[in-house]
C-alpha cells in the first residue's frame, strides 16, 4: 500500500468513526452512516463462487473471499460477520449446531436441562451447566474427566485458531478499506432467551411458563450475573456495544413478558450500561406492543428492528435511543431497483431527522439467493452517496 493510499484510508476511517461518535454524542453526523449491513461468511463464500462445504474448514484462506464483499458493497463498518465455524462443533460432537447437507450450520431444537432439575440449576447455574447441560449437548464431553479434558483442549485450540484467523483478516480488511471500528465488541443473551435457547429449549420454556413459571423466573434471575459478565468486555466504551439478539418476547403473552422476560433483561442492559458498555439489541420479529418498555432502557441503547412501524418507533424512541434496521431484505429479492431505492428513501425520511439513526437492513444477509445482488448494490450505493439528515 502506497503512503498516499494509506493516508487516504486513515482519513476515511477517521471520518467514518466520527459519524458514529456523533450519533452517540447527540450530534448530527454530516450524513447517514451505513452500519447494519452485515454479510455472513457463508454469503461471502457463495458470492465468490467457492464451495461452501469446503471453504469453512480452512479460515486461513478466506481473506480474498471476504475482501470481494468489501470491494463490491458500500459500508462504513466492516460488512462481515463470522460467528460460528464447524471445526470445533465437530470436535465437541455438538447437538446444538449441526452441519447440514447445504453447508450451513443448523440449530436444531435441543435442551440440556430437564424440568425436575430446575432447583439444581437455580442453586448454582454455572456448576449445573458444566456438569449436566454441556455433556448432554456436546456428546464428546459426556465421558470420563481425562478424556473430557483432551476433547475440550482440542476444541478450544480450534476455536482460538478460527477466531484468531478471522480477527487478523478482519483487521487487514478494515485497515485496507478505511472502516470505522466495529459496532459490536461483545455479545450476550437476555436471561430468558438463554434459558430458552439451550437450557430448556423453545418447547420446554413455553411449557414451563404454564407448569412452573416461578422456577423459570428464578432460573432467569440466577443466570443474569453470568450474562452480564459475558456481555461486558475487558475495555468497555460508550462508542462500542454488546450485541444481544432478542428471541422469545414476541412469542409469549404480554403478561408473561412483563413478569418473566422483562425484569432480568432490563437488569442485564442496565448493569452493562453501568459498567460503561451500551447494548445493541436485535429486536427480532415484531416488538410493537413492547415499544414503551424499550424506552425505559438506558439512553443510547442501539436497536436494530426487524419488523414494526418505523414512524411509531421514531416518535417513541428516536430522541433517546439509536435506531437502525427496518429495511426488508425480501424487497431486495422481489422488487425493482427503483422500488428498492424508494424504500431506502422512505425509511431515511422517517428515521434520519434529528439524528440517532444509521442505515441497516432488517437482518443479516446469509445466502446469495436471498437477495438480488444488483438491487442490493444500488441501495447501499444510494445511501452512501445521498443519505443526509
UniProtKB/TrEMBL annotation:
MF terms (GO), sorted A to Z: uroporphyrinogen decarboxylase activity
Top-level taxonomic group: Bacteria
Signal peptide feature range: none
Gene3D superfamilies from the UniProt entry: 3.20.20.210
The cross-references to SUPFAM superfamilies, in alphabetical order and at most eight, read: UROD/MetE-like
Q: Which GO terms describe its biological process?
A: porphyrin-containing compound biosynthetic process
Q: What is this protein called?
A: Uroporphyrinogen-III decarboxylase
Which organism does this sequence originate in?
Answer: Clostridium aceticum
Q: What is the lineage of its organism?
A: Bacteria, Bacillati, Bacillota, Clostridia, Eubacteriales
